[in-house]
């Protein structure tokens, strides 16, 4: 496979603390044109879910904007999560 040329697909993921770990956070993932992950970063949130993710993202990365509505999902292990596309303003 050729080295990826584009690293511009970004999306946010936030979670519900389904298993009570006490770690509320938001992830920013960067994928290439082959939809392979090339980088990610996360920051801690005060609470779970989209509202808390929006609030902390606005404070930590004010130039990072959510571009789509949050989409709810449930992983294979039963964890709740939400994803939304993101872009730098």
UniProtKB/TrEMBL annotation:
Report which superkingdom the organism of origin falls in: Bacteria
Q: What is this protein called?
A: Uncharacterized protein
Q: What is the native source organism of this protein?
A: Arthrobacter ramosus
Upper lineage: Bacteria, Bacillati, Actinomycetota, Actinomycetes, Micrococcales
């Amino acid at each position: 496979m050729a080295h990826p040329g584009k690293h511009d697909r970004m999306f946010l993921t936030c979670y519900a603390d389904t298993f009570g770990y006490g770690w509320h956070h938001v992830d920013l993932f960067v994928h290439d044109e082959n939809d392979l992950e090339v980088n990610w970063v996360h920051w801690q949130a005060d609470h779970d879910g989209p509202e808390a993710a929006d609030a902390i993202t606005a404070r930590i990365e004010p130039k990072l904007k959510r571009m789509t509505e949050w989409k709810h999902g449930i992983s294979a292990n039963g964890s709740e999560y939400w994803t939304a596309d993101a872009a730098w303003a």
